[in-house]
Amino acid sequence: MPDAAAAARRLGEHDVAIVLGSGWVDAVGGLPCNAETAVAGLPGFSQPTVAGHGALALSLRAGEVRVLAFTGRSHYYESRDVDRVAHAVRTAAAAGCRTVVLTSATGGIRDDLAPGDLVLLSDHINLTGASPLTGGAFVDLSDLYSARLRALCRRLDPSLKEGVYAGYWGPNFETPAEIRAYRAMGADLVGMSTVLEAIAAHAAGMEVLGISLVTNRAAGLGGRLDHADVLDTAAASLERMRALVETVLPRL
Ligand code: HPA
User: Fold this and answer.
1) Does the C-beta of 106 come closer than 6 Å to ligand 1?
2) What is the pLDDT of residue 2?
3) Number of neighbours of residue 123 by Cβ within 10 angstroms
4) pTM here?
């Protein structure tokens, strides 16, 4: 991945990366920032196009931990290009990050998952029909969302829930029939990101922690779906997202 190595040289060595999904950007606002780089100027990156997503790579400090934070992500639905989606996590791996935190906004499918809940991803169902990996490397995903890191988070905040994330291709929201099917398949949450990045990160040797904010009940289980409501719910949950991020990052 020559572009990832070149982008990493520009960003410098870090310990932990965090990808900030819809509504998550302000969750890192309290951490001291040493450097701020527009990703569009880095090799292999493109300008994110989604409302609520920024376009910066921030070099932050969380205690002793050097954190590389991406204020937005490239979604599969923007380009249908898996390498573009995986580029930030590959850059993080090339910058020395041993852990990546993938944050997201999601629709709750399981009955107990309500708007405002923070959920640790225990596993995923990749519905995109795509993988960021090519070739003959058969990567084991049995512990994709690190059990060790989930246990650490639950020690810090016992109220955190866990769930299986269904990664949908987007950009349209799902239909109610699709949500019924995903529930039957074992999905607890649904979103349009995370799965391809998690696979790429794991294959690159990083430990993966997935954290979702439930912003709405999934299609057919609540009201109508609207990205503006997703951002409003995230804004209302900001203090809890910020507390979680500030407690967890220094311990990774
Ligand atoms: N579906 C897909 N993606 C989402 C949702 C949803 O209900 N809510 C936030 N992101």
Assistant:
1) yes
2) 74
3) 18
4) 0.97
